TrEMBL record:
Pfam families (alphabetical): Lip_A_acyltrans
Record PANTHER family: LIPID A BIOSYNTHESIS LAUROYL ACYLTRANSFERASE, PHOSPHATIDYLINOSITOL MANNOSIDE ACYLTRANSFERASE
Compartments, record wording: Cell inner membrane
Cell inner membrane is among the record's keywords: yes
TM region positions: none
Alphabetically ordered keywords of this record: Acyltransferase, Cell inner membrane, Cell membrane, Membrane, Transferase
GO molecular-function term, one example from the UniProt record: acyltransferase activity
Protein name as annotated: Lysophospholipid acyltransferase family protein
Highest taxon listed in the record's lineage: Bacteria
């Protein structure tokens, strides 16, 4: 990683592009899962469009992991100097002494998005301790002043206290919750996704606004564009399903701005409603993955019709 951190950003992206090409042309689960997710999420796309989008995605994800050494190990001011534009910056303004919940999906350079947020003012970031490189990750995320709050009850109290002080709170909102409590199924690209309610609970308890923010990698340039987007209405609803649907609508809106930079290989729909078939199974060949999607669509349609009848 130290060697990677020494590379110019353009060279890191070139390396990532090559690694992504290998992933796209060698049968593996990441490639299969990305194709399944894309085919389910974009049913209007034909086979060639889906394969091209999948291959673009694998190249972009490889760039993410090749550039991450620079975002972690170089001085914070060097990493922040890679930001070429900020769209919707006015949404980051905190008003009336209130804090702000900032949601950063796994799009583009999410580590840079967190670094940028902490540069704007006192920030607490919800953080999942890692098995590997945990010390490095904590130092990297804290070097522009962020406080890291672990995914525990104690960490949640840190987030509440930060919001009550008028600080920022950063959360990655698009991971599947592990616990049954505090999550419900809500549609993401029309597919039931087990969705966290933490954002809703924090917003309702503290009365603070919610926005989305992510860092888009600029094609052909040594830099990134920050996007700030207002959260959909209902994200602070007293109805859990309305709130979860609004959260996923915001994530979907972000993804559609640069879909190839989302982590499509992630098994976002691994957990299924009772009686629904598993998604990530079958062979690794492209045709087998697409056949799996065709079967899933038929099964989903039948289950949805049965639910509507009930």
């Amino acid at each position: 990683m130290r060697l990677l951190a020494r590379l110019p950003l353009r060279e890191s992206h070139r390396l990532g592009n090559g690694l992504g090409w290998l992933l796209a042309h060698w049968p593996n689960r990441q490639r299969r899962n990305a194709l399944i997710n894309l085919a389910l999420s974009f049913p209007e796309h034909d086979r060639e469009q889906l394969l091209a989008q999948r291959n673009d995605t694998l190249r972009e994800i490889s760039k993410t992991y090749c550039e991450i050494a620079q975002l972690w190990l170089r001085p914070a001011e060097e990493a922040l100097g890679l930001i070429r534009e900020v769209r919707g910056a006015e949404l980051l303004e905190r008003r009336d002494g209130k804090g702000l919940i900032v949601l950063s999906p796994h799009i583009g350079a999410w580590e840079l998005a967190g670094l940028y947020l902490a540069e704007q003012g006192p920030t607490a970031i919800f953080y999942k301790p890692q098995k590997y490189l945990d010390d490095l990750i904590r130092r990297a995320r804290a070097r522009s002043g962020a406080t890291l709050a672990p995914i525990t009850g104690k960490g949640i109290r840190v987030l509440i206290q930060a919001l009550e002080r008028g600080d920022y709170v950063g959360i990655l909102p698009d991971q599947e919750p592990k616990a049954d409590k505090g999550a419900v199924f809500a549609p993401l690209f029309g597919i039931p996704a087990f969705t966290m309610l933490l954002v809703n609970r924090l917003a309702r308890r503290t009365g603070v606004p919610v926005i989305f923010m992510f860092a888009e990698r600029l094609s052909g340039e040594d830099g990134f564009r920050i996007h700030c987007i207002r959260a959909p209405e209902g994200i602070d609803s007293a109805d859990d399903r309305v709130a979860a649907r609004a959260l996923n609508q915001g994530i979907e809106q972000c993804i559609r701005l640069c879909p190839s930079q989302y982590v499509w290989p992630y098994k976002r729909f691994r957990r299924r409603p009772e009686g629904w078939p598993k998604i990530y199974s079958g062979g690794l060949a492209d045709e087998e993955a697409l056949q799996q999607v065709a079967r899933l669509r038929q099964q989903h349609a039948a289950l949805q019709a049965a639910n509507d009848t009930d």
